[in-house]
Specification:
By secondary structure, this protein is mainly beta. The protein has one domain. The protein contains 1 helix and 11 strands; from the N terminus they run αβββββββββββ. The strands form 2 sheets. Strands 9-8-7-6-5-11 form a 6-stranded mixed β-sheet, with no helix packed on it. It has a 5-stranded antiparallel β-sheet with strand order 4-3-2-1-10, covered by helices on one side. The longest helix has 21 residues. The radius of gyration is 17 Å and the shape is globular.
Length: 167
């Protein structure tokens, strides 16, 4: 019993450390987050009062990319949300596609969360699209580690609405 409590406490602490200190600041809340299949962390957070939105990516010990640099209202204008929804399940080949994208220099970063009813296919991750040569790097996420949702952007128009679909 003591071992179970000790293990549970360790897991709770490590989850807090993972998401609670470096990748989510005290004044922030998670919009969407997951771990990649290679153990890296992606978080999309906002200030609890809506002052800014921020993307962070990296290992548990090192944030490799934080975007944008400015933590103010203008940060919301640097992201774009697009989606496609077709209900009806397998009979109608239902799909639910959600994307948040931003551009840094010649690369477009696309956070995705997708569902295809035909085959019950769920996926999440980040696509990095080189805008010059159109090469795509896909960083697959572990679907079981998702926290939050992108779907709320359908109703909350705090970021620009886009039209581009990436699947």
């Amino acid at each position: 019993m003591k071992n179970t409590i000790l293990v549970f406490s360790f897991l709770l602490f490590s989850t807090f450390y993972l998401y609670g200190q470096k990748y989510v600041l005290k004044n922030e809340k998670i919009i969407y987050s997951f771990q990649t299949n290679k153990g890296k962390i992606m978080t999309l957070c906002s200030d609890k009062n809506g002052k800014y939105i921020i993307y962070r990516f990296g290992t548990k010990n090192n944030i490799e990319l934080e975007y944008p640099n400015n933590k103010d209202k203008s940060s919301w204008n640097t992201f774009e949300y697009s989606y496609w929804l077709r209900g009806g399940g397998i009979e109608n080949e239902g799909i639910d596609l959600n994307y948040v994208a931003f551009t840094i220099d010649k690369n477009k970063y696309v956070i995705y969360n997708t569902y295809f009813a035909n085959g019950e296919k769920y996926a999440t991750g980040i696509k990095i699209i080189n805008l010059l040569n159109k090469n795509v790097v896909n960083i697959a996420g572990n679907y079981k580690t998702i926290k939050g949702t992108l779907i709320d952007f359908r109703f909350d128009k705090s970021i620009k609405e886009g039209e581009e679909l990436y699947d």
